[in-house]
Amino acid sequence: MLDGIRRALEGVAEALKTRKLSDEEIKAYAEDFKLALISNDVAVEVAEKLGEELAERLRLIRVKRFGDGGGEMLELMAGILDSVIREGSPDDLLKRIREKASSGEPFVILFVGPNGGGKTTTVVKLARFLQRHGFRCLIAAADTFRAGAIEQLQRLAGAAGIRVVSQRYGADPAAVAMDAVMSARASRVQAVLIDTAGRTEVDHNLLEEMRKIKRVVGPDLVIYVGDALAGNAAVEQAKRFDEYVGVDYVILAKLDADARGGSAISISYVTGKPIIFVGTGQGLDDLEPFTRELVKSLILGRR
Ligand SMILES: Nc1nc2c(ncn2[C@@H]2O[C@H](COP(=O)(O)OP(=O)(O)OP(=O)(O)O)[C@@H](O)[C@H]2O)c(=O)[nH]1
Ligand SMILES: [Mg+2]
């Protein structure tokens, strides 16, 4: 995970260790660094900011000597990424659910995102996470569009022991979602997670449908599930979904399969929406909070 980004940072760290740099050299390194980030799917505006950040730090520290073969330098470089990453807090999420539960109402989370991005898997992963924290969960099968979607969800949720509320294919997704919320109220379930059909910014009917689900259900939270493998496209798509339906958090799936890692670095800066979790595998427990610490430990090769 984040291998491409790590190599970009290592390259500069290695070149810089124990050297005193002229302004020209600093500029050249910052430019190389920016290009290395861009080639690893970091969005251009983010790469530019990080390049400037690097130049600034190098100006401040250029007389310092790094004695440990570049490790200290790499640590400093990893810190540069902090300025563009917004962490979402799973604790805040748990707190909000708890507050809602104390009023006797279920907390409703709507999941949106492009086709095949990882929504259905992520919905079940998050439901498991919430169950581990003591919340009873229910999932609404509001993808009534793609063949096999309902059975896929039932199979995954069944494996995790989570109830699914479903109707037939072609049913109105907003009605399925509402049905699930009512069922949750009746059975004292604290969290309802709504799985929806994948869509892109050109599917006008499906985008309208997504808005309708939101309007009818009034979710407490909208989570955009993006595909790390899509790189920059994931960042652009997240922006479009936010404009269209309003997004509170991002979960970036398939970080484990992404050889570059740029979308994880860029997406929260470009969209202004924190990444709350990342998907790190196909298993139902492969969901990790996304923190600056996680990024740092991946960059420094500590895991
Ligand atoms: N390696 C890896 N694979 C993942 C991850 N999350 C999901 N997948 C896989 O990605 C594929 C698509 O996942 P789904 O959950 O079906 O995606 P979706 O967004 O619901 O897809 P549609 O409903 O067709 O739009 C499946 O093969 C998942 O197992 C992850 O974090 N890591
Ligand atoms: Mg799905």
Give the averaged pLDDT, no decimals: 92
Strand order of the largest sheet: 3-2-4-1-5-6-7-8
Ranges where pLDDT stays below 50 over 5 or more residues in a row are none
User: What does the main sheet amount to?
Assistant: 8 strands, mixed
Approximate helicity band: 40-55%
Query: Mind telling me the C-alpha Rg?
Result: 21 Å
The CATH topology of the largest domain is given as: Rossmann fold
**How are helices and strands ordered from N to C?**
HHHHHEHEHEHEHEHEHEEH
By CATH, the superfamily of the largest domain comes out as P-loop containing nucleotide triphosphate hydrolases
Structural class: alpha/beta
Attached small molecules: guanosine-5'-triphosphate, magnesium ion
Under the CATH scheme, which architecture of the largest domain would be assigned?
3-Layer(aba) Sandwich
Number of distinct helices: 12
Describe this structure in words.
- The chain is an alpha/beta fold and 303 residues long.
- It has 2 domains: 3-84, no CATH class; 90-290, P-loop containing nucleotide triphosphate hydrolases (Rossmann fold, 3-Layer(aba) Sandwich), CATH 3.40.50.
- The chain is built from 12 helices and 8 strands.
- It has helices at 3-16, 23-38, 44-61, 71-80, 90-102, 119-132, 149-159, 173-186, 204-217, 232-245, 262-271, 292-299, and strands at residues 107-112, 137-142, 163-165, 191-196, 221-227, 249-253, 275-279, 287-289.
- An 8-stranded mixed sheet has the order 3-2-4-1-5-6-7-8, sandwiched between helices.
- Helix 10 (232-245) links the parallel strand 5 (221-227) and strand 6.
- Helix 1 packs antiparallel against helix 2 (23-38), helix 1 crosses helix 4 and helix 8 packs parallel to helix 9.
- The mean pLDDT is 92.
